[in-house]
Amino acid sequence: MATPATPPPERPFGPASARSRHPRSARHRRLQLTARNQAVALCIIAAGTLLGWAVPNSESWLPKVGLTYDAGTAQAALAAIAGAMITLSGFVITALTLVLQTVQSMSPRLVGALRHMGRYLALFALLVATALYALVALSQLGGDTVPRLTVTCAVALVLIDAVAVLYTLASLRFAVTGGGLARAVGERLRLVVDASFPTPVDEPPASGPAPASPGLPTEPLTWLDVPGPSRPGVLQSFDERRLVRLLTEADARLELTVAVGEFVSTRTTLGRLGLTGAEVPSLTLPGLVAACARYGPTRTVEQDPSYGFRLLADISIRALSPAVNDPTTAVQALDQIEEGLLRVCTRALGPALLLDTNDVPRVAYPAPEWPDLVALALDETLLYGAGSPQVARRAHALLDRVEAVAPPARRAALSDRRDLLTRLSAAALPDPFLRTLASTPDPFGLGGPPN
Asked: Which letter does DSSP use for residue 2 in this model?
């Protein structure tokens, strides 16, 4: 049975200016993609095995088309194809290992955050399916029958495999570079920002108090604690639609005190559940609400936009480390950080509400404010990159561009970073020429045309 909670000092559901939205789809995107990739791979392997049995057994009544071989040469060709595809599958596994090592060198968190593994899994399944097709077809052949169609299909599969391997190898040139990883993270960050922060910044009312939010309970609420996980882990996401549906049916409110992306221990409560009555059936609701939370070993981007900025900052500061010393990659990461900040700066941020179908607030949850996101996106890169004229110039251009779009109330955080960058560059670059060079905004970093 849930224990009563101390009522919160102030009600989080009242202000009409609070950021609010309706719940997003209950499907967990990352798990869905993983399951889909695995299902596609299994289907490809099963299709290759089935074709290896069906095509040779259909030779007798299908038209005599395809490449012409004698029986011995056809069987030797199928055996060679099977052996070659098994060898090539090992090559793909080796290449995948190298890809993982390269991605981990940029940031160990990128391996779980990006979706490159799906294409490699499909390629591996295609090679295995071709090998199984040849092996199963060999088991169906016998006598002096010339399997013209069977061998032709095997050669066609080899051509498809060759095209897939060449395409994958060509894509590796961009997928495993620092700039390619930054672009992949930036693309996902833009999608999550649009979904998590759909509301633009509200203009302050001209005069008069804000109207009350709809649907607030008239009687006092009974507050209960919502239990945390049975095992410690990172709060990755919530099943928002299920959570709002449960609260609507019980006419309850939930104030979350743990943010998505936060590590949650077993003795931590997720938040406070406000019930309009103290009926015994309602006391089972905290457990049902707690079951809507999903935990894992690491953060994910799906409901945690700040994690996208964390990954971009990781790429940037790793490139600026003395062991790597690659300021150009840091500039490419700043390109994506700039786009993310440009999208976020005009959106309503901070604590938010989830609404039910009648626009009644049901869930209040914490979320980062604008200064928090700016600090996460820029501070470490400014600290480690102030001594690089290329990074400093690109950072000045970023601050100018975001400040030109940001509302006046949000420009102070950007001005603070500009002053910080100037002080750090002055300390890291004692030569007056380099200090002047580093203080000039340049979207290219170095070599850009004058604005």
From this structure: P
15 vs 345: which has the higher pLDDT: 345
pLDDT at 3: 57
User: How far apart, in whole angstroms, are the C-alpha atoms of residue 23 and residue 149?
Assistant: 54
pTM: 0.78
Alpha helices in 201-277 (DSSP H): 240-250
Confidence class for position 215, pLDDT limits 50, 70, 90: very low
Distance from C-alpha of 146 to C-alpha of 143, rounded to nearest angstrom: 9
Average pLDDT over residues 35-52: 86
Q: Per-residue b/e over 188-203, b at no fewer than 16 CB within 10 Å?
A: bbbebbeebbeeebee
CB atoms under 10 Å from CB of 211, counted, come to: 8
Q: Is the CA virtual torsion 177, 300, 198, 399 positive or negative?
A: negative
For 269, residues 6+ apart whose C-beta sits below 8 A from its C-beta are: 5, 225, 226, 227, 228, 257, 258
Return the exposure string of 363-390: e unless at least 16 CB atoms fall within 10 Å of the residue's CB, then b.
bbbbbbebeebbbbbbebbbebbbbbbb
Does residue 273 contact residue 252 with C-beta atoms inside 8 Å? yes
Which amino acid appears at position 262 of this protein? E
**CB–CB of 374/413 below 8 Å?**
yes
Which of residues 372 and 98 earns the better pLDDT score? 372
* Neighbouring residues of 14: CB distance < 8 A, sequence distance ≥ 6: 212, 213, 216
Distance (Å, whole) CA 231 – CA 290: 13
Residue with structure tokens 């620092």? 178
C-beta separation of 254 from 226 below 8 A: yes
Residues ≥6 apart with Cβ < 8 Å to 219? 276
pLDDT band with cut points at 50, 70 and 90 for residue 204: very low
In eight-state DSSP terms, residue 215 is: T
The DSSP letter of residue 350 is S
